[in-house]
Write a structure and sequence with these properties.
The chain is α+β, with helices and mostly antiparallel strands. It is 47% helix and 18% strand.
Length: 483
């Protein structure tokens, strides 16, 4: 429930800010926009103007075309610069267009070919982008033609030579596309088309030399990761109005970044800092990274939530965040701040069945499983006997695994009856009837069962996992220790 609340708040707040904040800016420049549509095949139909924002398409205007197929999108306030789309016929036919500071132009559409038969007049950058779309389409067709041309030869006696010729022809097309893109960037610089085209171009990494392929590949990977966003100004709000930026960010965070919570957190903060030059880009990036954290099922990703909450939201660097969101994040910080993966597990002093006081860290086993439970919890009743019979008995030999089974309530009869019922006397059973250990403060034991696996140094190496996952982790640790 907590995750859903945070996610809903973050998803809704950013888009509302786009229109409120940019409308205030646009009110100072009452130039407006007027986009004339000339589409004879769409006579008497409604066409739509959609705005890309954070990878999604939002309706911004509609136009009912007359019996000649003519009409206009028109408002008194200008559009945000970036990528838009004209769509029609149940939203299945889409034409991407670029909107720059020239917002009075004509679009001629022949629906028989929505790439080559779309013509723009009156806006230089919009026209240049449409020409680029046509060029890319022609180059893709050429690649397809070359592939078909060499298809038979690739399986014949001269297959190696044919493959080389095919690759060289396709490489020549790649160079032509690159040259076309570079020419646009040179011509338009920091104008909208130049910024978008530069962002579309892959970063060129210098050739890496190394003593073997493995080291060379590792160096290439690190360089690509470091320079992945060199062509993209993450603080330019025009790039928010594109379909490709979210895809690039998702690819980077999911494919380029090792899926380790600490590394993910480091790279997320790096991207947030790069987006700080504009309020909207900063807010959008911070929102996306928090959503990444709360959506993830990866163990340890609460580190990212904790970092963003502490360093940005609760530090007053996100003034748009309302009291509900801040309260949710503050509760989340309290819940996870003392039990992070890799951190020293807070020691707990609790009472055993025979009334002795014992410390969590004093258990002699190499690994300790701290397990919070309550017998009235149905999941606990199912899982705890399995834990005792299938895992504890399996890994208890040679002092490898100890269990600190912590009863979280204060009904002694309920506690002892449950232990007796399932014969769970061999591991360490504890409780805290006087509530002196503050276990609920140091560990997120509000939901049971809740488990934490500690290593020899009493650092947390796993938490909130299934018994099946726990079994695999213990097997891996046992093999590692035997090496």
């Amino acid at each position: 429930m907590k995750r859903n609340v945070i996610l809903l708040l973050m998803l809704t707040c950013c888009l509302s800010f786009v229109f409120a904040n940019r409308s205030a800016r646009n009110a100072r420049t009452q130039t407006g926009y007027k986009i004339d549509i000339d589409a004879p095949q769409l006579r008497n139909q409604t066409v739509y103007l959609g705005m890309y924002f954070s990878g999604r398409l939002f309706a911004r205007d509609t136009a009912l075309l007359d019996n000649r197929g003519r009409g206009s999108f028109q408002k008194n306030t200008p559009l945000h610069e970036g990528m838009y789309a004209i769509y029609f016929l149940n939203n299945t036919r889409v034409i991407d267009i670029l909107i720059s500071d020239e917002q009075r132009f004509r679009v001629q559409i022949d629906t028989t070919d929505l790439v080559n038969n779309v013509f723009i007049t009156g806006a230089e950058q919009s026209k240049a982008f449409q020409n680029y779309v046509k060029f890319i389409s022609s180059q893709r067709a050429e690649v397809e033609r070359i592939s078909q041309q060499f298809e038979a030869a690739l399986t014949g006696e001269d297959s190696i030579q044919a493959q080389e010729e095919r690759q060289e022809k396709i490489a020549a097309i790649d160079r032509a596309v690159r040259a076309y893109q570079e020419n646009i960037v040179q011509m338009y610089g920091n104008k909208t088309l130049g910024v978008i085209m530069r962002a579309l171009m892959p970063v060129e990494i210098p050739e890496v030399t190394a003593e073997n392929d493995s080291i060379r590949q590792q160096k290439e990977y690190l360089l690509n990761r470091k320079h992945f966003f060199d062509n993209i100004n993450l603080s330019d709000p025009r790039l928010l109005h594109t379909a490709f930026l979210p895809q690039k960010i998702d690819f980077f965070m999911q494919r380029m970044v090792p899926q380790i919570p600490d590394t993910i957190t480091t790279e997320a903060v790096r991207l947030i800092e790069k987006s700080k030059g504009d309020t909207l880009t900063f807010r959008n990036m911070l929102t996306n990274m928090l959503n990444l954290a709360v959506r993830s099922n990866m163990m340890g990703m609460d580190r990212l939530t904790l970092t963003l909450a502490r360093d940005y939201f609760l530090a007053g660097k996100a003034p748009w965040a309302d009291s509900t969101l801040l309260a949710n994040l503050e509760r989340e910080v309290r819940r996870v701040q003392h039990n992070q993966i890799g951190a020293l597990a807070p020691n707990l002093r609790a009472e055993t069945l025979d009334g002795r006081m014992i410390n969590l860290h004093d258990l002699p086993q190499d690994y300790i499983l701290l397990y919070f439970f309550e017998p009235s919890c149905g999941h606990c009743r199912r899982e705890m006997p399995r834990l005792y019979q299938e895992l504890y008995q399996k890994f208890r030999e040679n002092n490898f695994l100890g269990v600190f089974a912590f009863y979280s309530h204060i009904d002694r009869d309920e506690w002892t009856n449950f232990i007796d019922e399932h014969g769970m006397h061999s591991w360490t059973n504890v409780w805290d009837p006087r509530r002196t250990s503050n276990f609920w403060y140091f560990y997120d034991a509000t939901v049971t069962p809740s488990l934490y696996l500690l290593n020899r140094e009493r650092k947390i190496i796993a938490k909130k996992i299934s018994l099946e996952t726990l079994d695999m982790i213990l097997e891996a640790e046992k093999r590692r220790n035997q090496q």
